[in-house]
User: Which sequence fits this backbone?
């Protein structure tokens, strides 16, 4: 398998030469971190076996949220928190997309436009829930920002997962929409798109940004039934921290070209794409978010401040918050290669030295999540 760090090492000089004028600080920081992740240049920690007392050096991961190696444990923790908020209702995943004419504006004002997109998505569904003849209450939603298409082009859009239910705190009622058969219905996707478009344009104008003159009148919003929401949240959790590409999808790196594979969203077939090395790095780094920007946010009764309300609702409706435990994985422990004993950490963040660079301890795939 071809590692992303080896590709960065090969093409970093050419990449900086070509794109030095447009590299953002957050992108350069991510590039430097992924380049040294679990290599001889990374810091190490000293671990010792509890049984035979053997000591070995273990490389630290870079911990960058764009690295394909790192933050598996953080993804797992996020998924566990979301699944424990399950409520008795059908779940839907709504995808809000801005037209291609606005992508340039989004790229130039990433922090502002991404925040506007997320807030407008929430305001749209909140309005529909409040006005719905069945629901008429406060909505709850989980939003996740994605900036990439399957072929890794710049394509900012918001995935919003929400139950078809609402809480009316004044009347102390839980209302939900229930439909039978294969076709489940929440809201009309064309009506959602019209309201989302109006809210986006209004917010962009209030932010004193200049809209392009040729943006379309018709926007796209997709609304899809996703059962109890488990699989949708698992899917979103995969791309929460670990970058936009898995190393297993990088097929070749030779003659200055990098080839990777991806699944076409329409045909569902696996396709390949080949780019010059520096351009491939540019493709990856354009999806690095501004420093400190939160990709995922919870709203309404699914907000972290509503834990007691969710617990009460689950108790009254007989929902077990731990029934999705099949998705929960215990964090693996480092084990000694000599005797199989559990190893404990003695010292961390040791600078790389001639002695520690050999890394006599080789991490398994499961153990790799420990050194994040």
Assistant:
């Amino acid at each position: 398998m071809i590692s992303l760090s080896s590709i960065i090492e090969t093409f970093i000089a050419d990449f900086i030469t070509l794109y030095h004028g447009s590299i953002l600080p957050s992108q350069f920081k991510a590039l430097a971190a992924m380049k040294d992740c679990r290599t001889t240049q990374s810091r190490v920690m000293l671990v010792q076996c509890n049984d035979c007392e053997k000591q070995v050096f273990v490389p630290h991961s870079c911990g960058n949220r764009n690295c394909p190696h790192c933050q598996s444990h953080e993804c797992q923790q996020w998924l566990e928190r979301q699944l424990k908020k399950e409520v008795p209702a059908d779940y839907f995943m709504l995808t809000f997309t801005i037209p291609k004419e606005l992508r340039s504006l989004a790229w130039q004002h990433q922090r502002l436009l991404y925040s506007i997109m997320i807030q407008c998505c929430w305001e749209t569904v909140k309005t529909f829930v409040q006005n719905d003849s069945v629901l008429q209450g406060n909505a709850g939603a989980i939003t996740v920002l994605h900036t990439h298409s399957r072929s890794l082009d710049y394509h900012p859009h918001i995935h919003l997962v929400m139950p078809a239910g609402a809480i009316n705190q004044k009347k102390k009622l839980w209302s939900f929409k229930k439909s039978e058969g294969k076709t489940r219905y929440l809201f009309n996707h064309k009506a959602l798109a019209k309201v989302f478009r109006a809210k986006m344009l209004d917010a962009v104008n209030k932010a004193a940004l200049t809209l392009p003159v040729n943006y379309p009148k018709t926007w796209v919003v997709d609304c899809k039934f996703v059962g109890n929401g488990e699989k949708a949240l698992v899917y979103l959790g995969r791309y929460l921290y670990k970058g936009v590409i898995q190393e297993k999808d990088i097929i070749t790196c030779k003659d200055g070209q990098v080839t990777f594979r991806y699944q076409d969203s329409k045909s569902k077939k696996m396709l390949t794409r080949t780019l010059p090395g520096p351009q491939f790095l540019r493709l990856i780094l354009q999806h690095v978010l501004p420093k400190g920007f939160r990709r995922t946010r919870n709203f309404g009764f699914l907000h972290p401040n509503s834990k007691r309300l969710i617990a009460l609702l689950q108790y009254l409706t007989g929902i077990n918050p731990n029934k999705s435990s099949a998705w929960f994985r215990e964090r693996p422990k480092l084990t000694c290669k000599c005797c199989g004993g559990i190893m404990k950490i003695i010292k961390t963040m040791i600078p790389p030295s001639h002695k520690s660079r050999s890394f006599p301890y080789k991490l398994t795939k499961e153990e790799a999540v420990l050194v994040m």
